Amino acid sequence: MKATYETGLQGEKIAEQFLCKKGMRCMERRYREKSGEIDLIMEEGDTLVFVEVKARFSAPQAGQGLSSVTPAKQRKIARTAMIYLMKHGWLQRNMRFDVIEINQEGILHVPNAFQPGGMRF
Amino acid sequence: MNEMMAQALSFGVSGVSGFPVQVEVFSTGGMPGMEIIGLPDASVRESKERVNAAVLTSGKQMPPRRITINLAPADTKKEGPSFDLPIAVGLLVANLQINVRPELDLTRTVIFGELSLDGRIQPVHGALAMVISASEQGLTDVILPAENALEVACIQGMRIFPARHLTEVIDHLEGTQLIQPQGQISYEELRRHRSLAMDLSQVKGQQGARRALEVAAAGGHNMLMIGAPGSGKTMLARCLPGILPPLSFQESLETTRIFSIAGKLEPGSGLMVERPFCSPHHSASVASLVGGGANASPGEVSLAHNGVLFLDELPEFSRSALESLRQPLEDGMVTVTRVRHQARYQSSFMLIAGMNPCPCGYYGSRQRQCRCTPQEIRRYLDQVSGPLLDRIDLQVEVDSVPVQEIRTAAPAESSAQVAERVARAREIQLARYQGKGFHCNAQLDNAGIKEFCSLTPEAENLLHMAVNRMNLSMRAYHRVIKVARTIADLQGAEEIGTAEIAEAIQYRELDQKYWRS
């Protein structure tokens, strides 16, 4: 159990460094609400970026982590993001939802991985 | 500015006419996503996935924005994929992906077309109806799928821009590379490439039936052929479009429009130059004959508009299917009503019916003995109701031609020769009925019969005698006169004489022979 937690923490650190190098600024790490958790909240220019990190160092190939962000998981993230936005009064800001996957081969960053706008919460 | 707005103009189809649809695209910050409103059906809602893919494969971006697409008027149902292209254009403009050149007015440029995932533009149904409606509203510029271009190329005063790919449309809107407008094609030019499916010269023997077919064509009369299997009923019927006068431009517009809406037009084809020939199978339902389905689409009677509806094996059709033909036969128009839709389609066709004289098919045949009992025959014939029979002007018996006769028969007259006589008779009728609201003898009403069908006294005598002896109904009486009028027109005669009446009565005799015995 401990190992999974460590993997996650380590993955998020790598992801943050990777995104910061791309010119993003970190706003929150492990943002937590009753509805769920968002791994990273970044800012790129005027756009807020909610990032879900999938770290799998044992995974044989890339792309697997990505498909594990199911619609249910997406809704959870979106709901949590909504609360964050409301607390800051940022509902009208430009934003997007990214997924970043890390395994032993490297880092796969998918900007705008899903759009929760049309979903029913 | 965070909020962006764009508008594109498109058309939808309802019944046989198009109606303008404003495609409004509103793009703002907030939770990213795309929503289409304005009563879209499933195919319109799916359009966002096609548009998304097509935009990306065309090398443009889809920024993560909150996007609302409204199809106005919001209270009319929108269906079909033809809104893909205007939605894509609206999205590109609202998301600042393209700069439309200032001299191009998007609110006066009609855009429609289906997108495939790789950005190619696919043909849509109803292009002709949409462009006609656009032209009636004073709009001139249309961007449409290249495969629909020929279909609308005959409409005057339009600038048609046929597009094959989304990138072509983008370049056209930005002005970097304009699409070559489709040249106008005159209807006469299209008509030059007319080819006949079946020629009368292939029909051997059958003098009586050939003559009846000619009379039917000349006056626009409905016809019933009774004969043994394999006697050539279908072949004769197939020859009919070839001896009818060619479709006029107006008629072609009407018919092509219905085909276009039904999606029966071959992609890449132009206006129809051949009269339609529809021969639904006898298992046809009421809805498939007169029109219906969830969106009240046209049926066979409308597809046969200005052409021929051939019902082979008439008694095998369901009773309800046959009875449903009465309204279109009478009015040349059919109203299809469904829960959500109501549509009126033109359905002015010539009904040609074929049937066997009995269930086994050989009653009265020279070739084989009939095996049916009188009751069986009765039941079979009774499938065809009196009212329907009453609406059929000509009835002929078609018997098989003996083999020797087929081998030795002199070459028969070709369709072209017959068509010439038919055309002359039709011209006489057109001149006579100018401004009266009908154009052939079959459409005459009772007042018209009084006015235009004067009989010689001897002919009158003969007719009255026949009516009494044959017990003809009033409607049948009028039909005999109409047919006689057509026969006189074929002769070029002003007045109807005994010969014409005699021939016309002869086309009524089967009634007596089969149904009243």
Summarize the structure.
Chain A is an alpha+beta fold and 121 residues long.
Features:
heterodimer, A: 121 residues, five-stranded mixed β-sheet, 35% helix, B: alpha/beta, Ribosomal Protein S5, domain 2, Rossmann fold, 2 domains, four-stranded mixed β-sheet, 40% helix, elongated
Large-scale geometry of chain B: elongated
Strand content range of chain B: 15-25%
Query: Which H/E pattern describes the elements of chain A?
Result: HEEEHHEE
Profile the largest sheet of chain B.
5 strands, parallel
Largest protein interface, residues of each chain: A-B, 17 and 14 residues
| Morphology of chain A | globular
Description:
The complex is a heterodimer of chains A (121) and B (517). Chain A has helices spanning 2-21, 64-67, 71-88; strands spanning 25-33, 36-44, 47-55, 95-103, 106-110. With 121 residues, chain A is α+β, with helices and mostly antiparallel strands. In chain A, a hairpin with a 2-residue loop joins strand 4 (95-103) and strand 5 (106-110). The N and C termini of chain A lie far apart (31 Å). Chain B contains 23 helices and 18 strands. The relative contact order of chain B is 0.10. Chain B folds into 2 domains: 4-174, Ribosomal Protein S5, domain 2 (2-Layer Sandwich); 204-411, Rossmann fold. Chain B is α/β, with parallel strands linked by helices and 517 residues long. Chain B is elongated, with a radius of gyration of 28 Å. Chains A and B meet through helix 3 and strand 4 of A and strand 3 of B.
